[in-house]
Design goal:
Length: 281
């Protein structure tokens, strides 16, 4: 199972010399196993994915953590949508009474956008999700659970041949869902988790919906994951600041956990679970 990060920033995209190492696109994650593909979130990173693969990407299941604008703004610029032979299924828990279909339709209408959702030539199917559940897309098994964030947010667990990665979505574990996320991520090889704020920043932003590197390390250690990848980087945090954040997390983790910062176009492999050796009778 291959994971590619196409956007790792939170709130708004950023650019410039201070952001070269980590990049500036907002959230989008691609998970592949052979010909099967799941994409999580339609941030501006989705446009980068589309530009990279264009019409060669013609099948995928798109899962949405939530509807905040930094997570949907890339959808109208996803080049693959303009392939008339392409088919995409879109899956999301409705938020505040609005489905993903309604949110994307409102985004692509005048006076805020010149063309509507109805002009997209690709075949789209929309699926409202319950708060928790599971589904299978070819060789990829997807499950989801609800986490703490304003208006709610889904965490996703994607599994293939016994290997598992968990993407927390936007999450503020101090609002009461730390145990839920630990249980959901239990024994996954990789946890990708929101760690937007330094602890001192979080003290001024309680209720904004995000966590800290210390939160992420605590969740990862308690869940028994092998590798923590921190994401949803604050737009004010340049490469130097994110290096400090990474060191803070590594100091907290000690030798018990591999910790990294996500960056745009980062690629990682999730190996299958080892096959148990047969026991001779």
């Amino acid at each position: 199972m291959k994971i590619t990060f196409w956007g790792t920033r939170g709130s708004i995209p950023v650019s410039g010399a201070r952001f070269v190492r980590h990049g500036g696109a907002t959230t989008c994650l691609e998970i592949e196993a052979g010909e099967d593909r799941v994409i999580i979130d339609c941030g501006s990173g989705l446009a980068e994915l589309g530009r990279s693969k264009s019409f060669s990407l013609d099948r995928a299941a798109l899962y949405q953590t939530h509807m905040h604008w930094d997570h949907v703004q890339g959808f109208p610029f996803f080049t693959s949508l303009f392939n008339p032979n392409a088919e995409f299924s879109l899956h999301a828990v409705p938020r505040e009474g609005s489905s993903l279909h309604q949110v994307l339709g409102e985004q692509m209408r005048r006076p805020t956008f010149p063309i509507g959702l109805d002009i997209i030539p690709a075949k789209l199917s929309f699926h409202d999700l319950a708060i928790s559940g599971s589904a299978t897309h070819g060789a990829l098994d997807v499950s989801w659970a609800e986490m703490c964030h304003p208006s709610g947010s889904s965490a996703f667990r994607v599994e293939h041949e016994g290997g598992a990665m968990v993407f927390s979505g936007d999450v503020e574990v101090e609002q009461g869902c730390k145990d839920a996320l630990i249980a959901f991520a239990r024994d996954a090889q990789i946890l990708v988790m929101d760690a937007q704020y330094f602890p001192e920043e979080y003290a001024q932003r309680v209720g904004f919906g995000h966590s800290t590197p210390i939160d992420a390390v605590e969740v990862a250690l308690a869940a028994g994951v092998e590798r923590l990848i921190m994401t949803h980087h604050d737009p004010a945090h340049d490469d130097f600041t994110l290096a400090r954040k990474l060191q803070l997390a590594r100091d907290a983790a000690g030798k018990h956990l591999m910790v990294e910062n996500a960056f745009d176009r980062m690629e990682i492999e999730v190996p299958p679970a080892p096959t148990p050796h047969a026991v001779a009778s």
